[in-house]
Amino acid sequence: MNEQLSVETPEQIDINYQKAGIGSRFYAALLDTLLLVLIMLIGSYVNNIFITRLGDIFGKWFGAIGGIVVFALFWGYYMVFEITTNGQSPGKIALGLRVIKEGGYPISFADSAIRNLVRVVDFLPFCYGAGLFVMLINKNWQRLGDLAAGTLVVKTSRKKGKLTGVDSNPPIDIPPQEFLYADWIQLELVTESELGMIREFLSRRPTLSLVRRHELARSIGTPIAEKMGSGGDIRYDKFLKEIYALKTSESPKAVQEKDVNQLNPTE
Prior knowledge:
Layout: E1 4-8, E2 14-18, H1 22-84, H2 90-95, E3 97-101, H3 109-117, H4 119-123, H5 129-136, H6 144-149, E4 151-155, H7 192-204, H8 210-227, H9 236-248, H10 252-263
Antiparallel strand pairs: 1-2, 3-4
Helix pairs in contact: 1-3, 7-8, 7-9, 8-9
């Protein structure tokens, strides 16, 4: 089965992903399950202590509330992490996987809620039997939850992308003092295909809505930032501008040195 997946955005930017197979998804799910079990064991232990100390009346009420919390934790564990970490649970982070929309967009709250509600059906009759069967007959390794939510699980490393209609070189003029990411941007890690995707994004940027611009910048910029070791919040739109400016023109340091030399010419 072909492990490569090409996603064409509405802006005709083709982005290639590597599909996450059953093996990597199994180990990611195993890690998440072990973490969930650990959390639930600790929660149950604390809950039993409170039930014992609060007596029959309050203890039963507290036990019922504890059961609801455990259920919410089991259902919300994946959803909370997928929304807050751009489609990655702890297990997926460890295995280098990410959940995205079929069109290449980041997943929304509704997408994550749907795919994780259907997880109960995927688990039937036991150990994700239904989900495994559907993945085996699906070319994109999607389980029932993925099909219902329109999502895919891909590897975070981005392969070379095919570019369409790239015939412009948008000028990017950023004053040296306005660079935010120049200190940790590693230009040698940016491939020609990634630079081409950035170029095409920047050339089409003025025609995009604000929301779509941010979504597309995040989709293109996330794997590049991960290669450079970024772990914080990034303004991906500006991040891509700075990469393009540094790749196609002088660095902020070089610009600053040139400005100094122009102000203090030597004879």
